[in-house]
Amino acid sequence: MKSDIEIAQEAKRLPIREIANHLGLTEADWQPYGWDKAKINVQVLKQREDEPDAKLVLVTAMSPTPAGEGKSTVTVGLAQALNKLGRRTLATIREPSLGPNFGLKGGAAGGGYAQVIPMEDINLHFTGDFHAITTAHNLLSAMIDNHLYQGNELRLDPERITWRRVLDINDRALRDVVIGLGGKGNGVTRETGFDITVASEIMAILCLVEDMAGLKAALSNILIGYTFENTPVYVRDLGAQGALSVLLKDAIHPNLVQTLENTPALVHGGPFGNIAHGCNSLIATKTALKLGEYVVTEAGFGSDLGAEKFFDIKCRKGNLKPDAVVLVATVRALKYHGGVSKKQLGQENLGALERGFENLKHHARILAKYQVPFVVSLNRFTNDTDAELSRVVELCQENDLSVALTEVWAKGGEGGLDLARAVIQRVESGMSHFAPLYDLNGSVQEKVETICKEVYEAGDVQFTDLAKRQLAECERNGWGHLPICMAKTQYSFSDNAQRLGDVQGFTVTVREIRPSLGAGFLVCLAGDIMTMPGLPKHPNALRVDMDEQGKVTGLF
Predict the structure, then answer these.
(1) Alpha carbon distances (Å) from 417 to 22, 82, 398, 405, 412
(2) What is the per-residue pLDDT across 453-488, written as a single tens digit (0 to 9) for each?
(3) Arithmetic mean of pLDDT, 155-180
(4) Which residue of 5, 25, 113, 119 has the fewest C-beta atoms within 10 A of its own C-beta?
């Protein structure tokens, strides 16, 4: 079979004007970025606020393998399948980061015959949103250091500045750096570091606001550090929110593209699935809900991270009410959680598959707590055997889990028809009674313990001495009412990436709490989460190339 990029380059794309017309958008509602990309004006959401919403379907997954399980592919394929069944559908997904593009995982625009296009543009510079976020973030960093250099009127403690710098490339050498070297004229010497752009709080903010006014207000609330007297200092104290909002004036508008089958897709924003909430922008999702009958969206990593944050942060913030959920499972992920090494996942192993099924059952228990009906999508890979696929279906049926074999990678929308029918059945049954897991009025500790014990099924939660001090500080400063954004490994329910399968009764150790006040949540770090990844020994960058005609190869 052809590679993903070869399939995408041969696709028959419609002019973006036709996609916009199909959605009922007028010329004033969108701005072209070339002939196959556009930005939808953020005002469209406000103009259509009184119109009914489409049905909202979330795609999440079981605990993944390091290579990923095709969640974006299922999202795109399901949207194509729903359109084939006569439901006017849009897909809404995140913009890919350049970090994994040139690192280990490759691109993130779907795969096979379930992709959003133009794939090369989406996976590279696209419409410049990530560059705008990177620039805005680093402008704030520069203004903070300039403030120190120019006399430090706010009395910022250089050792308690919490705002770092960002770059959208995996670069472990920049995790911890010293700036201001070379003499007094180069600024105040202090320790800081770089995170990857998708971990920027500005990225999270862009994905949780609904208009320009909300964006500027959220930017002004960013915590940048503390004074010598231990008083919080915000962006508004520095007066930087105006300049930051100007740099984001184009990035706030959601991007309109299409799938290989010309299904409309909004690709906008890309917050880190660990350090942030891991969903595409609220503006894109809510705009899509006004333009179609069904909207298929996704959340980062497994349901313990992605779906939990989608439900408890994004849905709460945007008053979203999901109608159904798709839980992506794969034979290789089941075997991986059944004890098979990554190198042996291509070999048939029914015993490991059955052991790994406990992981899928745990994810089913998580979704049941949110009272939204769900379907298991068994995403087929080329190495899967018929015996393995049949056994997964049997196990689902034995555990009263609705399941549909999904072959959208190989067959596009046609390969997702069974899944689409199952989704329609659940949506139209009206069985969704969605409610967030915890009350915001609880203490920070109570909310963290609820997530760890109810979602992860941990036996205990411990806070380091640093986290205890930060917890008390959050309560003292009036931040205790905010939702919790847990930052832990995606490979395990625990905070240890090596504990696979369905581990229970473990202890989660919260080592640090970082207030993301502009985004409106508290980040609780557990385990060894990195906010600046490194490149692997053989990064994908070694395979990416371009011929003399400008044709890109190796992105996947």
Answers:
(1) 22, 7, 23, 9, 10
(2) 999 999 999 999 999 999 999 999 999 999 999 999
(3) 96
(4) 25
Give dist(CA 410, CA 419) in Å, integer. 15
Residue 553 is predicted with a pLDDT of 83
Q: pTM of the entire structure?
A: 0.95
Domain boundaries, the chain: 4-128+251-429, 129-245, 444-526
pLDDT digits (tens, 9 = 90+) for 85-108: 999 999 999 999 988 878 876 667
- CATH T-level topology, domain 129-245: Domain 2, N(10)-formyltetrahydrofolate synthetase (3.30.1510)
* Third-level CATH fold of 444-526: Formyltetrahydrofolate synthetase; domain 3 (3.10.410)
4-128+251-429 CATH choice from 3.40.50.1370, 3.40.50.1820, 2.40.240.10, 3.40.50.300: 3.40.50.300
Kindly report the CA angle at 136 between 189 and 230, in degrees rounded to 5? 50
498 Cβ contact partners less than 8 Å away, ≥ 6 residues apart = 492
**Which residue type does 333 have?**
A
The pLDDT value recorded for residue 321 is 96
Write the pLDDT tens digit of every residue in 243-257: 999 999 999 999 999
What single-letter DSSP state applies at residue 327?
E
At residue 109 the predicted structure's pLDDT band, cuts being 50, 70 and 90, is confident
Q: At what angle do helices 386-398 and 350-369 cross, to 10 degrees?
A: 40
Task: State phi, psi for 408 to the nearest 5 degrees.
Answer: -70, -25
Spatial neighbors of 105 by CB under 8 A, at least 6 apart, are 67, 68, 540
Q: What φ, ψ does residue 477 adopt, rounded to 5°?
A: -85, 5
Q: What residue type is assigned to position 544 of the chain?
A: V
